[in-house]
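User: Study the shape:
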Amino acid sequence: MFDGKKAEELLLQCGIPLTAHKFTIQNPKRVLLVFQKAMETKLSGRSQDLYFTSVFYELLSLQNVTTVARTSLTESAKDFIEINIYRKLTVEDIAAQCNVSAKHLCKLFQKNEGISPLAYLQKKKFLVAKDLLLSTQLPVNEIAAAIGYDDPCYFSTAFRKHVGVSPREFREQQKLGE
């Protein structure tokens, strides 16, 4: 636990809530080198305080780099999904595009978005399906095929589960509401 005399002050200066004292070490070798370097210093007094403050900021910067990398990986996955929304995609396809394992992608996506990549993909596909149902007269089986569903019955079941009504009912309800 990080709890020195100036811990709260440093955390607040860095914009870190006082409840967020737990950090995941992404690069333990780099952190170990920073600590070894800090322990070898022969400074004292104010110089030592300034030096250790700079070490703290260096450690925080390592954490920020990994946070940015995680976020940009999730954003890359979301971009790939949106560009390829009309294809039949799997989590493995998305992970391969991002150069990570499917398990790693799922873990990061869940952490950053609060849902799995598969749930995000389905959510986006159903938004497209709803748009197609409202803006075209395409039959449900063609809309299903357009967004990567081979089986229109499976699409209708999934649509009902996600939206609460079947695709046909959705189209009819929206027409009545106009």
Notes: The chain has nine helices and no strands. Confidence is low (pLDDT under 50) at residues 64-69.
